[in-house]
Amino acid sequence: MQSSRKPHENQVSPADDRFLIGLFAGAGAGLLAGGMWAVNLMLQPGEGHQVLAFSLLAVSVVGSLGMVLSRGLWSRRLTQIAMITLVGLPLVVQPGWWIFASSLAAVAFFVVSTPWGQEGLRKLPPAEPIPDQAVVLSLGLLGLPAVAAIGQLEGGGLGLTLWAIAVFSMAALYSRAQAVGLWSIRILLPTITIPLVIGSPILAAVVIAGATTALVALSWHPQALAAITEATPRRVTPLPIPPELIPEEFMNAAGYDSSGRPLKPSP
Predict the structure, then answer these.
(1) Contact 26, 83 (CB under 8 A)
(2) Beta-carbon neighbour count of residue 9 at 10 Å?
(3) pTM, to two decimals
């Protein structure tokens, strides 16, 4: 005998389970690859390795958790960029286990790029979408220390570490919609980056200066400010409603008859 019970409309189908498994597998592989690379780099001497480790780990964590929690398309793109960076990182530095970490990053990139790692993401924008300029600015600040660290892995010293901490702090403040974070990016970031550029090799200095200039210019975009500014409520002029369109019981409860005249008090 067949059951007349209908499946719930929100019930997850086997196909949806497959896509969710792909989404979680890609995010987990990306997080694990970023963690393996971070541990490898932290074991190497030099402040540059430490800064690079924390920056890559931060990008991997934000991208992977974004895929699982918010399921926005930005998290998929960020994870793809992070995994490509981890796959190509052995061209610059080759610490222990780098083969396993880069192989895992390649697997994560493949899974995230397939329909299995894409269908579970949100297709429609949120009710209050964040401007693209604000998203790029926040995520770009997380990756900026990695760009600076690659140019001076063996050197950098305490100055590079303090500069990276300041950049991470700006990213955190701006992500929490704090105006001081935006103004720090506009004014403080170029100021503290000048000594770092002067003390870097020529090629690294050009890359650091170019990346910083792009982020500072983006911070002056009107949408970067709009993302942390509360929208001003729009004043709406009330429209009169003919009393004939309002149910009589509502009019009587308000003290009026069906024509809109005040009810006479009962004797």
Answers:
(1) no
(2) 5
(3) 0.70
